[in-house]
Amino acid sequence: SPSLGRRRREVAEDEVEETPQEKKLRLAKQYLEELRQYEEEEEARPGDLIGDRLKEDVLEQKGRLQRLVAKEVQPPDPTSIRELRGHQLPVTCLVITPDDKVIFSASKDGSLIKWEVDSGKRLCVVPGGKKGTEEQNMGHASQVLCMAISSDGKYLATGDRNKLIMIWDAATCKRLHIFTGHRDAISGLSFQKGTHQLYSASHDRCVKVWNVAENAYMETLFGHQDIITGLDSLSRECCVTSGGRDGTVRLWKIPEESQLVFCGHQGSIDCIQLINEEHMVSGADDGSVALWGLTKKKPLALAQHAHGMQEAQGLQQPYWISAVAPLRNSDLLATGSHSGSVKLWKCGEGFRKLEPLCDIPLVGFVNSLKFSAAGDFLVAGLGQEHRLGRWWRIKEAKNSICIIPLKQRATAPSPAIPDSS
Amino acid sequence: KKTSKPTKATVKQQQGKKGPLEMSAKKRVPFLRQVVSVKKKVHRDPRFDDLSGEYKPEIFMKTYSFLDSIKKQEKEMVQKQLKKCRNMEQKEKLQQLLNRMTQQEQAQKKQQKLRERELSLKRQQRELAKQGKKPFFLKKSEKRKLELAEKYAELKRSGKLESFLSKKRKRNAIKDKRRLPSQKNL
């Protein structure tokens, strides 16, 4: 069984079986050892550097480190938005490398493009093949639905409708490995921050854990009762998934092999992202955006009809939320739909309120949104159709990615640590 | 569209605070989702169910007395069919059915008679007790004697006394013959 395989590998490493708590202890000790070595190397530095860094890390772990950035954000200048075109069909997903220099994007035609942020040039294009050309083509032969990049920028993972997860070397765009095992389209991918462990979610309702460095399958987790529409993870050995029409958001605790089930949306939950280790944001097809905390079953804050109402077949229906993106460890949030704009939101105190800040006009379906690590720009993947189907088609839109620079009112944001969560 | 709450879940929070539901992540989920809770039909056998209570013959007879008329009608139907029928096999079957029905009727009547006799005895004893005399209880042999006397009176009334007595004599003779020493032992 796969869990036995993992246990055996751990035994090979440490020669002792350990519980999740012991593993956490061991990792913490390892981390302290590394920090001590770092301090020994860098001697001429004043102040309790280790102490400060530890404090920051602890707050980040607990989900309390918060950069109060939102109130300083200004609505960006529409002329400063750069549009980069290259995909034939709508862009479905994109990722920004941790150094904020490169963007990878994929679209419904199966093509992958590597863009350079500063110049807007295409560094690498992996074209998508038609159905049935899996043998000849190096790229995907079907729609690419999701992608993820590891936190050291080394590996890129992409998942498509053909049940395949392809691992690429980010620097050279060479395909390293293909993971098979899922029984339906791959709808969510995410690396655990700081490691090479990959989580994948699929329309076959399971979450699988893979080790990319060793090209190995680790385990499968069950629980969802409908297709999984989104997945995200941070540095903990946990991931969150949104379950579409089963109306649940689940947090998977992998070492304990258990799940926490949250429910609150009325429509189908289409996208989910983690804001920090303790909070997450999700969007549904009834236009609602919800903020969740890990201790409450229902959302902490819920914004109904976030993008307004649309006139569809004579009925007033809310615009579906197709993408949400938080600036990690801060209170700024962006949501995308096909209402013609990307909305920026501010999360209130303790994530209990959601206030709209401003709109960024963008025509088309916003299929993917990502903030840069530093928070200076926001990238949106646009298309003429929704990334999962062809319910509507906006002819005026262009299949492209847009880089939106964000300006701050103050000179530099300072990391503010609130007293109580 | 929404699921009903999963049955096996461990709540690892305080009693007052309701956090998210914690479940095992390793159990496979069935393909079909339960959207509306369906109640399982509980089958109960009234013969063995405590709700039905104890069997009391008088109450039973009273409540189900309507069945007698139905049985009568059915018997008439069977008799009619028997007249009409040409097929030998079916005629046999119908005859058996008719016999069964008549015999059931007779058995019922017998039981009723027994019950009535018991009741009358009890009534007698109650009257005697009321009057002040000591109530006496009959032995089984005495009860049998009484029954025999009644039967004799009944037979005499209907005129079948002779045939009954002759049959009885024959039966007793055969039984006595068995007791006699056989030829082997000579």
From TrEMBL, chain A:
Gene coding for it: Rrp9
Keyword tags: Acetylation, Isopeptide bond, Methylation, Nucleus, Phosphoprotein, Repeat, Ribonucleoprotein, RNA-binding, rRNA processing, Ubl conjugation, WD repeat
Cited Gene3D superfamilies: YVTN repeat-like/Quinoprotein amine dehydrogenase
GO biological process, one term: rRNA processing
Family of the protein in this entry: Belongs to the WD repeat RRP9 family.
Region ranges (Disordered): 1-22
Role description: Component of a nucleolar small nuclear ribonucleoprotein particle (snoRNP) thought to participate in the processing and modification of pre-ribosomal RNA (pre-rRNA). Part of the small subunit (SSU) processome, first precursor of the small eukaryotic ribosomal subunit. During the assembly of the SSU processome in the nucleolus, many ribosome biogenesis factors, an RNA chaperone and ribosomal proteins associate with the nascent pre-rRNA and work in concert to generate RNA folding, modifications, rearrangements and cleavage as well as targeted degradation of pre-ribosomal RNA by the RNA exosome.
Name by which UniProt lists this protein: U3 small nucleolar RNA-interacting protein 2
WD repeat spans: 84-125, 137-178, 179-220, 221-262, 262-302
GO terms for MF: U3 snoRNA binding
SUPFAM superfamilies: WD40 repeat-like
SMART domains: WD40 (SM00320)
Superkingdom as given in the UniProt entry: Eukaryota
Automatic annotation (TrEMBL), chain B:
One family name in Pfam for this protein: RRP36
Organism: Oreotrochilus melanogaster
BP terms from Gene Ontology: maturation of SSU-rRNA from tricistronic rRNA transcript (SSU-rRNA, 5.8S rRNA, LSU-rRNA)
Segments for region (Disordered): 1-25, 166-186
Coiled coil: 71-158
Domain of life, per lineage: Eukaryota
Subcellular location: Nucleus, Nucleolus
GO cellular component: 90S preribosome; nucleolus
Major localization class: nucleus
Keyword rRNA processing found: yes
Family to which the UniProt record says this protein belongs: Belongs to the RRP36 family.
Biased composition annotated in UniProt, kind: Polar residues: 1-16
Biological role: Component of the 90S pre-ribosome involved in the maturation of rRNAs. Required for early cleavages of the pre-RNAs in the 40S ribosomal subunit maturation pathway.
Name of the protein in its database record: rRNA biogenesis protein RRP36
The keyword Cell membrane belongs to this UniProt entry's keyword annotation: no
Keywords: Coiled coil, Nucleus, Ribonucleoprotein, Ribosome biogenesis, rRNA processing
Quaternary context: Associates with 90S and pre-40S pre-ribosomal particles.
